[in-house]
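Why do we bother with a discrete structure alphabet at all? Because it lets us treat a fold like text: something you can write down, compare, and reason about line by line. To make this less abstract, here is a complete entry for Antitoxin. Read it the way you would read a sentence in a foreign language you are learning: slowly, and without expecting to understand everything at once.
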Amino acid sequence: MTKTITITKAREEFPKIIDRASRLLEKYIITVNGKNKAIVMSADEYESLEETLDILSEPGALEEIHKAEKEAEEGKYITLEQLKRDLKLDV
């Protein structure tokens, strides 16, 4: 859930905002003079977003993801147990 608040309110409630962002994954858009200026979100969510952007910035990554999804829908996959057996790993 994203909430928009003024910078004045953000100053008053900063500890609460940080707590709710980290525990409840709430996002806060901070406005100054009615304009969006910053976002407060959990560090974990931010890191996850950055990792996703890194993956998707790789040339051809999105196409590969779509191809893999289609193959999975068609049943063209092996299970982890099958892979371990094929690689002769302990199951």
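What the structure line is telling us, in plain words: The two ends are 42 Å apart (CA to CA). Residues 43-57 form the longest helix (15 residues).
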